[in-house]
Amino acid sequence: MRQARVRSAMTQALGPLLGGLTLVLALGFVLARVRGFGPREADVLNGLVVDVTMPALLFAVLARDGMAWGAARVLPWSALALFASLGLGAAVARAFGLDARAIGSAGIVASFSNTGFLGLPLLLTLFPGDADASSAAMLIDLVITTVLLWTLGQAYAERLGRGKAFDAKVALRIFKKPLVLAVPLGALVHLIHLPIPPFLLGTLEGLGRTTTYLVFLSLGLSLDVRALSGRVAPAIALCVVKLVFAPAVALLCVRVFVVPEPLATVAVLQSAMPSALASVIIVALTGCDRPLAAAVCTLASLASMATLPAVAWVVEATRP
Fold first, then answer.
1. What's the CA gap between 211 and 117, in Å, rounded?
2. Model confidence over 123-167: pLDDT tens digits?
3. Cα distance between residue 276 and residue 264, in whole Å
4. Average pLDDT, whole number, for the chain?
5. Contact of 125 with 14, CB cutoff 8 Å
6. Cβ partners under 8 Å of residue 89, min gap 6
7. pLDDT: is 169 or 213 the higher one?
């Protein structure tokens, strides 16, 4: 009981960090209105994140700390939370009487989390120098989000969007991207003890630390509250699935199967992240309901500023 009343260092650090990111998001929103910045500038920032800052972050962390492969034990529970949320998200869309395209969008945005652009940098800040925590966060992002989104997630969306079969050749292109290649390269550098000049590693780490801020600036630039028009009720319901139900499933799994810390906390917090920004891209590519996906992604990103500290508090309060 005492644990439930006392906020740990992690919870205390998460609140101010998210508060600062909210200010960055607000800055992007203001710039879009005052300076006329918009989707084009947001796309430039997103490109920098995907091809430069995020790969730099992954490579630097892995080259320095290596990969703790035992962290892979969290993957089944993260996957279970994802698939349970996908099913419930689709059921919610059906309950609102939405069409197949909207059901496809609902399943994707209710399940796939922003584990890379938001989750990984946040967790690296909360668990500095902890190889187990960083490895769990990276493996969840790489396997559960990136690989599953661009394979099973895309296949699901294709079926409900355009009614087409899944194109495996197109999906496999994800393995050629710097974001994915940085993981085995960084792990290999650490494994063979290849010396990296300190200035180079420091530069890569510096670039990587800008990831979260660039993502929130981009999100602020592209925020469109009009996307919620006529979709407020289903968007709120899907956000509840993403921000409450998904981490609840992950928390139940890690507690029932006694997953050790910090792996348990990382698995739950990654499941609690808002909808993946890439989910909107998948939805658009496959002919599903893009306005609904954009509405949920926007609302979930904003609401997560309040729900993430709450989830962190619950995780701490339920520790054995």
1. 6
2. 888 888 888 998 999 899 988 888 888 888 888 888 888 776 666
3. 21
4. 84
5. no
6. 106, 107, 108, 109, 110, 111, 238, 241, 242
7. 213
Total domains present in the chain: 1
- The CA distance from 305 to 294, in Å, is 18
For the entire predicted model, the pTM comes to 0.82
> CB of 319 within 8 A of CB of 261?
yes
What is the C-alpha to C-alpha distance for residues 208 and 54, in angstroms, rounded to an integer?
6
At position 27, the amino acid (one-letter code) is L
- Three-state secondary structure call for residue 275: strand
Render pLDDT for 263-298 as a digit per residue (tens, 0 to 9): 999 999 999 999 988 887 788 778 888 788 878 888
Range of the domain at 126: 2-317
Nearest residue to 19 (alpha-carbon basis) of 313, 310, 305: 305
The predicted-structure confidence for 221-233, as pLDDT tens digits, reads as follows: 877 667 667 778 9
Give dist(CA 28, CA 122) in Å, integer.
20
**CATH number (domain holding residue 291):** 1.20.1530.20
| Distance from the first to the final alpha carbon of the chain | 11
| DSSP state letters, 112-126 | -B-IIIIIHHHHHHH
Dihedral of the CA atoms 130, 131, 137, 141 (nearest 10)?
150
Amino acid at 182: A
Q: What DSSP state is assigned to residue 151?
A: I
Phi, psi of 113 (to 5 degrees): -100, 155
Number of H helices, E strands in the chain: 19, 0
